[in-house]
Amino acid sequence: MSGEMRQATHSGESPVVIVGAGPAGLAAAISLARLGIETILVERRAELSSLPRATAVSLRSMELMRSWGLEDAVRAGGVDVEWRGWQSQTLATVAAGSMWPVGIPTREQAAVLSPTAPACVPQDHLEPVLLEHLRSLGAARVHLHTELMGVENRPDGVEVALRDVPTGDVRTLRARYLIAADGAHSAIRTSLGIAMRGPDGLAHAVTTVFRAPLWRLVGEHRYGIYSVDGAGTFLPAGRGDRWVYGTWVDPQDVDGYTPERFVRRIRAGAGIGDLEVSIERSGAFSLAAQLADRFRAGNVFLAGDAAHRVTPRGGTGMNTAIRGGHALGWKLGWVLRGWAGAELLDTYEAEWRPIAAHNVARSADPGGSTRETADELHVDLGGRIPHVWVHSDQGRVSTLDLLTPGLTLFTGPDSSPWEAHPDGGPPVTVRRLDAISARSIGIRGRGALLVRPDGTPAQLWAHESTAAA
Asked: Which of 49, 255, 318, 424 sits in a 20 to 30 Å window from 464, CA-based?
């Protein structure tokens, strides 16, 4: 919230203003727009970041991409790997190395758990896909190169001052709710006096984005992360032999990592002294594992890194942001559509804080990159209903594909006692399953299961004696 301000002009109202076009802001905006809620998304940058940053798209995140019709578009910018870590002396001797689990399902495991699978896709491909989809929905207005100058949090909503960076023009806008998805150093969070708790400066690292013919070195050993003895870490970061190299450093040595030094380190890690390396850009960062004291102040909600900061260990940062943004978006959407009372918004932090806290704690653990899938899967999937393949008018689909923006009522083959009678609440769509599929998701006999749009069970009836409303 800086810069010179000109005289502000009033420019109307919007149900929701979202600040920040990162994964959390985009996911929240998409969730709202798909419910027909008008939103204004503002982003201080003139364009989205060209840094790959995160590359792990978790199973649950890919299920959301699938539900938005974006699965193929997201995978188009990724590489085909197994989400496992691989340790070896060099990349040239990778065949003599060993595998370590990173807490993400393998493709074989994912085939049992889900209609999709985790992906290895750089964030600078994923974000434009999300932005393009958001713009296609029509309910959102996106303003890049627009800076938030101030927020007034009122009992009946918020008033924000927005500055067009190129012109300096300032306008004010009233909204019912504001989502602060403005990053780890959130100016909105600071202005609200919400503190972050947890360690900062846990470690320091330098990274570089580069291109080099490394796939021919690793051959059939295609993994999401390579740890090379004493030389650092290599991660595939998109199509065309694009990679990220990183290593821990003493903070006093950050400036010593010139492009030439990076090339030497990459060649040493690859085990090829004359490897052709093209450095694109380099940077440095310090690690923090922090959680905001609260995720809400009146009509302002924190999302993504503004609410929870994690280190790269475990690859949970972007996924926590996507899922949190989705959770906040559909809940705000339900309230604004009159499908639920304002008390639903209290469940955002109540449900999301334990997940964020788990991922923050994991990322602070020096061994947090190594986890068995079984130990982390429940955190990623968040208690959603089981995936079961069923036959429908659209062909073979997953039970997850049958979820709706409202409530979904799953029943057994005899659905005659079950009728949906919405009375001012969210619409209820009845999905009749065959007996085996119904039993697979917990329905016994002539019972039924009511499910929220995020796949979380809302109510289970053991018998047909109670009708769903």
From this structure: 424
